[in-house]
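Quick one: structure tokens for this chain, please?
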Amino acid sequence: MNWIDIKSEEDLENLIKESFSDNLGVAIFKHSTRCSISSVAKMRLTSFWNFEDELPIYYLDLISFREISGLIAEKFGVQHESPQLLIIKNGDCIYNASHMSISVKALHSEFQK
């Protein structure tokens, strides 16, 4: 799995630009390094992720970069959760899951509608 780190507002702006490409969009996984539920969600994504070329996945350590997490909530009109998986397409959040609702199977179901 090729995690792309989000460590700055510039990184966030770059992923928004990338969301306008022909792929399914971009994924953002917001992870708390202090939370066991977040660790389980990350492990589930890592174990089953098969969107390598069509859905790049960005990683935010929200303990270290809490202000970026707030920007994400503000820019995409979503409530902050941890852990949280967002799919951004054309600059908009088109999918949002948190806690144990985060699963690759659910993503596949969402994109096959």
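The chain is about 35% helix and 25% strand.
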